[in-house]
Predict the structure.
Amino acid sequence: MTGERVTVTAYTDGPLLVRGDADILDADGHRVPRTRRTVALCRCGLSTIKPYCDGTHKAAGFRTDE
């Protein structure tokens, strides 16, 4: 990482949006490949491209608590 500010935004009924130069690690601590500066991370658990969001939350009716 380069010291650039990283932000994580939780979208209502949607993914976590990660902006900036953050490392994303899997459950074993290995770095997950990343090709974009801004990525959406799945919160519903149904994405076919986890840890990234593929929009499945919409069809599944995923809702977050307020």
Summary: The longest helix spans residues 56-60. Strands lie at 7-10, 16-19, 38-41. The chain has one domain: 1-61. The two ends are 32 Å apart (CA to CA).
